[in-house]
């Protein structure tokens, strides 16, 4: 089974905002699974419950985990209209690995495709 990597913003000014964005990632996983018919992964949907993005070592660990997971995926789908620094790193990695990238807005509709 192939994997779809979900890329969406996590950062926010408050912990509550971060957790709200993590919850949105779960919704985006559902959209991606319906659209592409395979398993969708979004490490930022659960890592905020395990690691603190404000602690540099923990943020680095989370980003490294995401990059390794992305390398196992057959596509990357970007949700939302804001590209965070973490998302920019994931998009750049996908480009470097030759992984197709799809852009969707928050409702899961096509905005653009690469």
Provide a descriptive summary of the structure in words:
Residues 3-103 form the DUF7768 domain. This is DUF4406 domain-containing protein. It comes from Oscillibacter valericigenes. The chain is α/β, with parallel strands linked by helices. It has one domain: 3-Layer(aba) Sandwich (Rossmann fold). The protein is built from three helices and five strands, in the order βαβαβαββ. It has helices at 15-36, 56-70, 85-97; strands at residues 3-7, 39-41, 75-79, 101-104, 110-113. A five-stranded mixed beta sheet has the order 2-1-3-4-5, with helices on both faces. β1, α1 (15-36) and β2 (39-41) form a beta-alpha-beta unit. α2 runs parallel beside α3. The longest helix has 22 residues, at 15-36. The chain is globular, with a radius of gyration of 13 Å. The two termini are 22 Å apart. The model is unreliable at 107-114 (pLDDT under 50).
Provide keyphrases for this structure:
114 residues, Rossmann fold, 18% strand, alpha/beta, 3 helices
CATH architecture: 3-Layer(aba) Sandwich
DSSP helical segment count: 3
- Which class of secondary structure composition applies to the elements? alpha/beta
**Straight-line distance between termini:** 22 Å
Strand line-up in the sheet with most strands: 2-1-3-4-5
User: On the 0-100 scale, what is the average pLDDT?
Assistant: 90
Give the helix proportion (percent range).
Answer: 40-55%
What pattern of helices and strands is seen along the backbone? EHEHEHEE
What portion of residues belong to β-strands?
15-25%
DSSP strand count? 5
Low-pLDDT windows of residues? 107-114
Looking at CATH, which topology would you report? Rossmann fold
Principal-axes shape call: globular
Under CATH at level 1, the class stands as Alpha Beta
The count of domains is: 1
The Cα radius of gyration reads 13 Å
Instruction: State the major sheet.
Output: 5 strands, mixed
């Amino acid at each position: 089974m192939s994997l779809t990597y979900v890329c969406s913003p996590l950062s926010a000014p408050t912990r509550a905002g971060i957790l709200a964005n993590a919850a949105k990632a779960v919704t985006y996983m559902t959209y991606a699974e319906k659209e592409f018919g395979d398993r969708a992964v979004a490490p930022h949907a659960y890592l905020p419950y395990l690691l603190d993005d404000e602690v540099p070592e923990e943020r680095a660990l989370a980003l490294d985990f995401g990059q390794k997971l992305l390398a196992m995926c057959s596509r990357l789908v970007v949700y939302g209209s804001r590209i965070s620094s973490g998302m920019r790193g994931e998009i750049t990695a996908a480009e470097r690995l030759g992984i197709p990238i799809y852009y969707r807005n928050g409702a899961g509709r096509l905005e653009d495709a690469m």
